Amino acid sequence: MIVGEIRRYLRDNSTIRVSRSMKDIAYKSLRLRESDPEKYADNAEIAKVLEVTEKEVEEALSAIAEPSSLYECIYSEGGDNILLMDRIKDEKNTEEMWTERICLLQAIKTLSDKEKLIINLRYYKGKTQTQVAEAIGISQAQVSRIEKSAIERLKRQMSV
């Protein structure tokens, strides 16, 4: 009974709530690994024994891992601390990308409604010129001409 209470406490008092079935898979996986580290080093072997998918084993094991704080110190020397957040780099949302996006949104505001529609359908919805032409009732050649002039205007607006 005491062992059961300890298990319940450990299961229910973690930082992140994880389903009981996922925790069971994780703990069974860990027990298998402890019993024979060489045989059960691979998640595929564990999945076979537990009769679940390899992905379920991976998700279960990652679900029980303790989360790290972005403010966790990962290196310290002479009073200079390097935090985990200092090591994480966001390639997509750089300051340069934000300013370019703002400039683009401002430039798009200068386009006519038809030009905005064509740019939206072509570059945000991924439609071909023929599909755009059919959708708004003009020829493909007209779409091409309007698109080209709109892009030229956007380039001029963004270079200013």
Question: Could you characterize what this model shows?
Answer:
This protein is mostly helical. It is elongated. It folds into two domains: 17-63; 95-159, Orthogonal Bundle (Arc Repressor Mutant, subunit A). The chain is 64% helix and 6% strand. The chain has nine helices and two strands, in the order ααααββααααα. The chain starts with a helix and ends with a helix. The longest helix has 20 residues, at 140-159. The protein has a two-stranded antiparallel ribbon with strand order 1-2.
Short description:
The protein has 160 residues and is mainly alpha-helical.
Secondary structure: elements and pairs:
Elements: H1 2-12, H2 20-35, H3 43-50, H4 54-63, E1 73-77, E2 80-83, H5 84-87, H6 95-108, H7 113-124, H8 129-136, H9 140-159
Antiparallel strand pairs: 1-2
Helix pairs in contact: 2-3, 2-4, 3-4, 6-9, 7-9, 8-9
Key features of this structure:
mainly alpha, Arc Repressor Mutant, subunit A, two-stranded antiparallel ribbon, 64% helix
Helicity, as a percent range? 55-70%
CATH class of the largest domain: Mainly Alpha
The string of secondary-structure elements, in order, is HHHHEEHHHHH
Number-wise, the strands total 2
What's the pLDDT, averaged over the residues?
A: 86
Strand order of the largest sheet: 1-2
The tally of domains stands at 2
Largest sheet: 2 strands, antiparallel
- Secondary structure tally, helices: 9
Over the alpha carbons, how many angstroms does the gyration radius reach? Answer: 28 Å
Global shape? elongated
Kindly identify the CATH topology of the largest domain: Arc Repressor Mutant, subunit A
CATH architecture of the largest domain: Orthogonal Bundle
Structural class: mainly alpha
